[in-house]
Amino acid sequence: MEKVCDLQTHGLKFIQDDGFFPFGTDGVELANFAEGGARDRAIDLGCGTGIVPVLLAGKKGIPTVGVELQPDVAALARRNAELNDLPVTIVNARVQDVRSLFPAGSFTVVTCNPPYRKAGSGSASLSERVRIARHEVAMTLADALDAASYLLGQGGRFYIVHITERMDEVMCEAYARRLTPKALQVLRPAGKKPHIFLLKCIKDGKRGLEIYPERDVLGSTGVDYPE
Question: Closest by alpha carbon to 91, among 75, 79, 105?
Answer without folding.
Answer: 75
